[in-house]
Specification:
single chain, alpha+beta, Glutaredoxin, five-stranded mixed sheet, 9 helices, 54% helix
Length: 204
């Protein structure tokens, strides 16, 4: 495995050490329930733009806003199967990792390793190998990948994404407001600061 990848995965794992105590069904939420602002990421693990957002913007958001308790992140599966052969499989694998308590670690790992598995359809053995590399029970993971409930969870998120009107990935929503057209982290940062100010000072 590339040493740079290992270092990046380790760094991201440290970044995502926050959020302890969330209920099992909230495994895709990172940050405090009491944070005044929620940023929802409608995303596809095979999308290169989503990869850029996950590996650059998300760690910055965590450091600046999530750790201080001002923001929480929520990930929603939005696999664009028509464009990405492995998007649904990756989402199912992330869901199974989430049920085992390792969603954000697996999230990081999938995006870091995306160049290796994106493109032609891959077998479940790829996700099983990743699960094993992260210390997850491979047998339980394999059973989860084949479970009808796993398909249902991904389909439910997909319907929610389409119901929102999302057509591309990543779609970013801040406190219920879709943020589109931002071209830099600084633009997104200003939107978040504005949302935090509005939430904390509703009379202004």
């Amino acid at each position: 495995m590339n040493a740079h990848y290992l270092k990046l995965v380790y760094a991201l794992t440290l970044v995502f050490s926050t959020g302890a105590g969330l209920r099992a069904q909230d495994y895709r939420v990172l940050g405090s329930r009491d944070a005044p602002v929620e940023l929802t990421i409608y995303s596809d693990f095979e999308c290169p733009y989503c990869r850029n957002f996950a590996l650059a913007a998300v760690p910055a958001l965590v450091a600046e806003f999530v750790h201080p308790g001002k923001l929480r992140l929520r990930y929603v599966y939005f696999p664009l199967a028509a464009n990405h052969a492995n998007a649904v499989g990756a989402a199912k694998a992330a869901h199974c990792a989430g049920l085992a308590g390792r969603f954000w670690g697996f999230h990081d790992y999938l995006y870091v390793r995306q160049p290796e598995w994106a493109g032609e359809a891959v077998a479940d053995s790829v996700w099983l190998a990743y699960a094993g590399n992260l210390g997850l029970d491979r047998a339980a993971f394999a059973g989860c990948l084949k479970a009808a409930e796993t398909n249902t969870a991904i389909e439910s998120d997909l319907r929610a994404s389409l119901g929102l009107g999302a057509t591309g990935t990543p779609t970013i929503v801040v406190n219920g407001r879709s943020i589109s057209g931002f071209s830099s982290y600084e633009e997104l940062r200003r939107e978040i600061i504005s949302a935090i100010d509005a939430a904390e000072n509703p009379g202004n």
